[in-house]
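To whoever is on call:

I kicked off a structure prediction for a single chain this morning and the downstream step that reads the tokens threw a length-mismatch warning. I double-checked the sequence; it's 75 residues and nothing unusual in it as far as I can see. Pasting both halves so you can look.
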Amino acid sequence: MPNNLKLDFRSSIPVRINLTVSWERDWWCEIWNVTEKELRAAIFAVGTSAPSVARHLGRRIPVGRPSDRGEVRGS
């Protein structure tokens, strides 16, 4: 995982959304069931804070790392 990806120590879920990283952008879209356009609009409205974007979208922040929930990145 890149060193520049800011993580929440307790859950290992990024606390900021980075749209320039394709797998991360796709992951957020998938877990919140939104399009990239909807994700970008939410980030434009409230910033890159994942909790703020989740509230704006009416979604929850996932708990645990993707691998803890049986998800495999890059498949």
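Update from on-call: the warning came from a stale cache, not from the record. Cleared it. Sanity check on the structure: DSSP finds three helices and no strands in the chain.
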